[in-house]
Structure formats: C-alpha cells, structure tokens
Amino acid sequence: MGQRSRKRGRREPPARTAVASPAPARPSRPADSTRSEQRNAAVRATLTPLAPGERPWPLKVAVLLALLSGGVQLALFAFGVKLKVAGTHAKAGPTIVFGAIMFVCAAGMWALRYWALLGFMALLGITVAFFALALIKASSLLGFAIAIAGAVGGGFLFWKLVRVLGRVQMPQYPGR
After folding, report:
1. What is the DSSP string of 117-133?
2. Which pTM value belongs to this model?
3. What is the DSSP string of 18-74?
4. For residue 59, which of 131, 173, 158 has the smallest C-alpha distance?
5. Which of 3-7, 39-43, 72-76, 154-158 has the highest mean pLDDT?
6. How far is CA 101 from the centre of its chain?
7. Which of 145, 147, 99 is nearest to 123 (CA)?
8. Which of 131, 155, 152 is nearest to 143 (CA)?
9. In this predicted model, what pLDDT tens digit does every residue of 103-134 receive, in sequence order?
10. Does the pLDDT of residue 172 top 60, yes or no?
C-alpha cells in the first residue's frame, strides 16, 4: 500500500503481518487457453503455403482495390479536381505519395510479398476505423449507408486477408 504523504524524506517500510496460510497456487493456464491453443494448432496445420502463381480471391480484390484507389487519386489530381480532406484541399505531395504507395502495395501483393500485404492490411484497418467513426457524424441515410458499407466491406476483406497473410511465407533470413 502506498503512503498518503507526498512529502519527501525517509519512508519506513510497512509493517509485516503474519500470514496464517500461504496463498493457494494458481494453475498456470486455465482450461480455456489450452483448448484455444489446440484449436490454433489445428488451424495452423491446415495452412499450406501458396503455390507459385496461386492468388486467392481476397488477394486479387486487395490488389484491385489498391490499384483503383491509387489510380483514381492520381487521375483526379492530374485532371485538376480539388479533393477536400478534413475541410482543406489536398496538397500535391501527399496525393502523389499516397498514389505511389498504393501502386507499390499492389505490385508487392501481386508478387506475394509479406510486407506489402501487411502494409495494405494496416492501411485497410485504419480505413475501416475511419468508416466506423464516420457513423458518429452520419447526418443522412446515404452517409449512414456509405459508412456501414465501408466498415463492413473493409472489415470483411481484412478478415479474409488474415488467412492469406498466414499462407504467404515470411522471408527467411540467413543465419536464423
């Protein structure tokens, strides 16, 4: 227990009281965690690495989404459309960088690179969170429908990409 005084100085350790019996030992893991570990091991056993040239449909959808979002962003900027983001017009630098990142993610995902899929999933997770937060400010039925569709659709794609990410093998570094 902490002392109530905030003054600096010597503090005496709290008086020790005699304990009648030692505390009962707790089990190291509850039964639920062993079941979940067994279930996780069973799921890991069913995962097989992607064969060369194999691309599951969630990966194809993610590549298409990355290409479309990067391409549309750059095309709108090239045609002079002024996009408003948080009440201000988007600048040239961030717009071009975002488009380039989306193209790099798309190319990396198509080449089955772990880092590209993980990076796209991080951006997708942030996007889903923004759609979910947009539900707070939805002032019309259309705004509500767009926010729900973005959150549910993005969340579903994120969920499906988790299994694909498990099948894409992390790079093996020499010496490990």
Report:
1. HHHHHHHHHHHHHHHHH
2. 0.70
3. --SSPPPPPPSS-HHHHHHHHHHHHHHHH--PPPTT---HHHHHHHHHHHHHHHHHH
4. 158
5. 154-158
6. 17
7. 99
8. 131
9. 999 999 999 999 999 999 999 999 999 999 99
10. yes
